[in-house]
Amino acid sequence: MNSADVVIIGAGMAGCISAKLLSARGLKVILVDKLERSPPVFRAEKLEKDQIDLLYKFNLLDQRRPLAEPLGVNVNYKKGKVTKDHSVVQYGIRYHDTVNQLRLEVSKYVDFRVAKVQSIVEGNQNNQSQIVNLTDAEPLNAPLVIVASGYRSSLLKKRGVEYAQDRDLASLSYGFDIERSDKSIFNSNAYGYFLKGGKRKCPLNR
Q1: Which residues pair with 195 in a beta bridge?
Q2: Which of 50, 74, 88, 167 makes the best surface tag, with the fewest CB within 10 Å?
Q3: Where are the alpha helices (DSSP H) in 87-149?
Q4: What does the longest C-alpha to C-alpha distance in the chain come to?
Q5: CB contact set of 95 (below 8 Å; sequence gap of 6+)
Q6: Residue 113: phi, psi to the nearest 5?
Q7: What pTM did the predictor assign?
């Protein structure tokens, strides 16, 4: 059995950043994910200023910058007219590129393992440990186990953790490719279309 101070299940942004910070505190961390690399997925395609500030604070922004492009200016249009034009501190990203870059960086400091987690069970009560059972691999043992594999994770359900959906906070994201009829290049590098309170807003980033 492999022992650590902390086992983190899920090597997404939350899991990678948690692993980096806990390792910096001198803790032995094992980071587990069922995939070596994150596949292409559509979500979190932009970093906001507060997220950028945190990555800088955690010394992870420089690892992200080579694959991120500053958006620069945000232009809002309404009924074909510009209603707002202002500078923004944002980066356009691809989520899987970001995660894969973070995995490369974090694996320098923590033990990153590719394995599928079957279950989490209580260990010996005397040492207050938890056992993480893996498919086709030795179990892991740690007093603290962090599940960072998404709020719909079956592991959380097995542990009796349920999630409640707040309809007021729910959102729907969708993406599509567009091109001009004359095939000319857009002078902006990102487009967004938002619905809020029954009113449409369409910010254009460039």
Answers
A1: 200
A2: 167
A3: 95-106
A4: 72
A5: 13, 38, 41, 42, 43, 44, 45
A6: -125, 140
A7: 0.77
Distances (CA, A) of 110 to 1, 24, 34, 84, 106: 17, 10, 16, 45, 6
Give the H or E element holding residue 14: helix 13-24
Q: Per residue of the chain (206 residues), give pLDDT as tens.
A: 689 999 999 999 999 999 999 999 999 999 999 999 999 887 767 788 888 888 888 888 877 666 666 777 777 777 777 777 777 778 777 888 889 999 999 999 999 999 999 999 887 666 678 999 999 899 999 999 999 988 778 888 887 777 777 777 777 766 677 788 888 887 766 666 665 554 444 444 44
Q: CA 98 to CA 107: how far, in whole Å?
A: 14
And the tokens for 188?
């902006």
Two tokens, residue 4: 């650590």
Which amino acid belongs to residue 56?
Answer: Y
User: 């980071």: which residue's tokens?
Assistant: 31
- Across the strands, what pairs with 134? 117
How many residues belong to the chain? 206
Q: Which of 23, 41, 29 is nearest to 5 (CA)?
A: 29
Task: Tell me the C-alpha to C-alpha distance, in Å, between residue 169 and each of 47, 68, 73, 156, 194.
Answer: 19, 27, 27, 21, 14
Buried b (16+ CB within 10 A) or exposed e, 67-96: ebeebeebbbeeeeeeeeeeebebbebbbb
